[in-house]
Each structure stands twice: as C-alpha cells, then as structure tokens.
Amino acid sequence: MRGEPLDAETIVSATEEMLRRHGPDKTTVLDVARQLGVSHGSVYRHFASKAALREAVIRRWLDQVRNELTIVAQNSELPPAERLRALLTTMFAIKWAKAGADPELFATFRVLAAEHSAVSSDHVGFLVAQLQDIIIDGVAAGDFVAGEPELIARAVLNATSRFHDPTHAAEWDSPEAEAESTAVVSLILDGLRAR
C-alpha cells in the first residue's frame, strides 16, 4: 500500500501514464489504483467517476495549451491581423505537435471532444474568447471590418476547424496541411480587412 497521502494531482499523473499505455478505452479506475498501490475507492474519493478523472487529465493538458495561446493572443506588440495569424498558426502547431508526440493522450482528447464534455466546451469557449479579443482590437484599430465579434470569432474557429479540431487529426500529417492552413488563414484575414 501507498505510504504518502494521495492527492488529486498524483492521481491525474498516474491516469495520464495509464492512458498513454493503454488508451482511453482500456484504462480503468482500477488500473490507476493499482498503479498507485491504493484501492479504487481511494481514487473515487477524489474523482466521482472515470469520466471525471479523464476530464481532469485533459483539463491539465489543455491548460498548457491555453498558457501558450494566451501569450500569443496578448502580444500587444503585433498589430491585430498579425496577432490573429500568430494565434491560429500557433494553435495549429501545438495541436499537431501534441497529436504526433502524444497520440494516446490525444486519442483521449478526441474521445472527450466527441462526447462534448465540459472540458471540450470550455476549451472552445476559451478559443472563441481569444479570437474575439483580437477581433475587437482589430475593429477598434480600423484594421478589421465592423461586425459582431463573437459571431466572427466563431466563424474563424469553424473555418479553421480542419487544422485544429481533433476529429481531423489524421489529416494533419499530410504534406499539404501547412500550405493549406496558411492559405485559409490568409483568406480569413483578407475577408476581415477593412476596406
């Protein structure tokens, strides 16, 4: 049995490791408990269900993504159009790298996204808010055409979904993906440009 106290962070780390080894379909709370040398009841004291535990893993994973994207989105040294380009291309690059470097954990993210979990919805909300802030700045600077910022932000996110939505992950290692994403971002920026 485990000697030191069990906390949520330790459980999340062990779950992440088990998900990498066995994938989302084969990882159970019992597997995590065994890995930690505790009863499955000890895990359930911190997380009410297997879904809650998986969501905690993905939330921690996405928090890292959020930190990187926030830095780019808030870079006031760049004009709004370049901030928007930088945010989108950084978002694509991060997701593509995570899908390639950590495919098992990315598979868990895909499962949760397909289930429309709270974590997935929160992440989409975060992305929309980052895009919306840049669009508001662009309209205020006279760089972007006026419109409803949230609707525009959602349209940008939807228009680029092929390059960041986990359901399209199999397409990301295509030799054309980078050139195609660059073309889509340029088209969006041209459409937003005030005339």
Q: Could you name the key traits of this structure?
A:
single chain; 195 residues; mainly alpha; 9 helices
Assembly of the depicted chains: single chain
End-to-end separation in angstroms reads 68 Å
Instruction: Describe the main β-sheet briefly.
Output: none
Strand content: under 5%
- Overall 3D shape: elongated
Rg (C-alpha, Å):
19 Å
The tally of helices reads: 9
> Averaging pLDDT over every residue, what do you get?
91
Helicity level: over 70%
Query: Pairing-aware structural class of the strands and helices?
Result: mainly alpha
Order of helices and strands: HHHHHHHHH
Contiguous uncertain segments of 5+ residues = none
Give the number of DSSP strands: 0
Q: What would you note in describing this structure?
A:
By secondary structure, the chain is mainly α. It is 72% helix and 0% strand. The chain has 9 helices and no strands. α1 packs across α2, α5 packs across α6 and α5 runs antiparallel to α9. The protein is elongated.
